[in-house]
Design a protein that fits this description.
The protein has 197 residues and is an alpha+beta fold. 19% of the residues lie in helices and 22% in strands. It has a five-stranded mixed beta sheet with strand order 1-3-6-7-2, with no helix packed on it. Strands 4-5 form a two-stranded antiparallel sheet. The chain starts with 9 loop residues before the first strand and ends in an 8-residue tail after the last strand.
Length: 197
Amino acid sequence: MKTSSAPATLKPILFNTEMVRAILAGEKTCTRRIAKSEKPPFVVGDILYVRETWCINTFGTHYRADWPNGACPEMDCDDQWHPSIHMGKDIARIFLRVKSVERGPLRGMEVADFQKEGVKPQNRLGGCKCAWAQEGCMERPCENRDAYEWWRYMTSFRKLWDSTLPAASVRTLGWKANPDVWMIEFERTERPESVKD
């Protein structure tokens, strides 16, 4: 179900550092959010400003996603990373335009859906269990290949999804619970003129 009946507005959206990096790399173009009601959190055309972990000091604004090893060289011992929830739109650097909003079950995902979420596939310990795994199976027909690819991406996405939930909510809202979610596709866009630098 695509939705676009409400007027487009500027709204915040939270992403963890790993997903911010995936957006910056052009690898993440979709996100899923729990369907808490019949009304979607965003509509087609909305502009979303990404809230991410950040810090401001005398050298400027810094973003945690830019520094994989922790503090950036321009931070001193008194500087601290601030939680993304406290980021205002005035210091946001990533803006996204909503392209589509659809509702569906969390586990109704194909490999392409996982890829749009920006997750990296994980190999099964010991690799593929296919009988041809040691014989160049990519050169032969294999009825298990699609299932193995799905498993590789699903495993990574499941870990990511469940890690974003409070421990008490994993049983009811986690991957196994298969809740209804809003699937929000987006594209990078410029900072709206209405947002001050």
